[in-house]
Automatic annotation (TrEMBL):
Coiled coil: none annotated. PANTHER family: CYTOPLASMIC PROTEIN, YBAK_AMINOACYL-TRNA SYNTHETASE-ASSOCIATED DOMAIN-CONTAINING PROTEIN. This is YbaK/aminoacyl-tRNA synthetase-associated domain-containing protein. Gene3D superfamilies: YbaK/aminoacyl-tRNA synthetase-associated domain. Residues 99-201 form the YbaK/aminoacyl-tRNA synthetase-associated domain. Pfam families: tRNA_edit (PF04073). InterPro entries: YbaK/aa-tRNA-synt-asso_dom_sf, YbaK/aa-tRNA-synth-assoc-dom. One of its GO terms (molecular function) is aminoacyl-tRNA deacylase activity.
């Protein structure tokens, strides 16, 4: 384990080198464009299309990026069925991420004390899609204060009680299954809250 830790630290130090940072980003974007051009773009919903073998959730994300004219800026990775049992560092290595801190997840929270089911108003929604780092967790107290601040604290704390939604509700709201929610391509226009720490990430993090 000591040797593995030393190797991990050595790799992370490499990402701190300016030349490596620049090269990493250039290579990522070049590969993204190459994959896009090699695949071309076809309507992923077509059953006769070769892309129909791609999982539904992945096609959903691909279509969303295509509508945003950003398909050539992202990459998709094939992972082992046991991927979610791997350590975060192993996942980062597999995805070519600079560090485990760059691995993020999307979770759906519900304010169970909300008096309505609407989510069209980002300042007063029953549901929120929260994007957070895997190395971190959502602090519901901070989440509550963030949402309250958006309304200039128009409601008291007792009117908020955020809980993770169940898998069925998440599937209905997002179109994605368990451990597979992506903030791009959601079934509904849920308000999205991005953890501030993610905005501070750099290649050398």
């Amino acid at each position: 384990m000591d040797q593995l830790d030393e190797l991990t630290q050595a790799v992370q130090r490499l990402y701190q080198e300016p030349a490596v940072q620049t090269g990493y980003l250039k290579l990522f974007h070049a590969n993204a464009v190459a994959e896009f051009l090699a695949l071309g773009y076809r309507d992923c919903s077509s059953a006769s299309d070769p892309e129909s073998e791609i999982p539904t959730g992945v096609r959903q994300v691909m279509d969303a990026f295509q509508r945003l004219h950003s398909r050539q800026h992202v990459r998709f990775y094939l992972v082992d069925p046991t991927y979610y049992s791997w350590s975060l560092q192993r996942r980062a290595f597999h995805l070519g991420a600079p560090s485990p801190e760059h691995l993020c997840k999307s979770v759906i929270f519900e304010n169970i004390r909300c008096t309505h089911s609407d989510y069209s108003d980002a300042t007063d929604s029953r549901y929120y899609c929260v994007v957070v780092q895997y190395v971190s967790s959502v602090n519901v107290n901070k989440l509550t204060e963030y949402v309250r601040a958006a309304t200039n604290y128009a409601k008291g704390k007792k009117q908020y009680n955020f809980r993770l939604v169940d898998a069925d509700t998440a599937l209905t709201l997002t179109g994605f299954g368990n451990n597979a929610i992506c903030p791009v391509g959601l079934n509904t226009n849920l308000p999205i809250i991005l953890d501030h720490a993610i905005t501070q990430l750099q290649v050398d993090t």
